[in-house]
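hiii, so i know i said id send this last week but things got crazy w the move. better late than never?? heres the sequnce for the chain we talked about at the cafe, plus the structure i predicted for it. fair warning i was half asleep when i ran it
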Amino acid sequence: MRRVTRTWWLAVGLALILAAGAQAATKVVHLTNSIHGAGWYQYLTEMAERFNALQTDIEVEIIRTSYYSDRYATMLAGGTPPDMTDFTPALAGHFVESGAFLDLVPLMTNDPSFYAGDLLPMSFDVFTLPDGAIWAFPIDIRDLRQHGHPELRRAAVAERDAA
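okay and structure toks below
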């Protein structure tokens, strides 16, 4: 009996030592909206796989959902909000107003590799709150002018040629 007890304690001790050395990676969750399409999801998945292959202490997980706002609200209410999202400002408004998003200004200020001059200042306008907090990082800027009517198309061409 004494030998079994000693072996058991040895096994438990070894398991504890191994468990302490093999800590789980920090999980970073990116919630994405399926409306962005399969190409965007494939891109995110491939980038996460590449990142995960290079890191041992961080693991990126992509969660794709078609019920984006509902899923985010459920995760938030459950105390496990995603670390990253690709919310559009129209969908994120009430979450931003409730303070669910982190102010990115301190992170941007303290990151020596971040240079705001690389981006157009206006690209942050829609993501900047009246108090100066920035709740999201712009990933693209779209020209929303559409020239469907022939007269508008001619005016756009004339405007372009005059410039």
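btw The chain has two domains: 25-101, 102-163. thought thatd interest u
miss u guys!!
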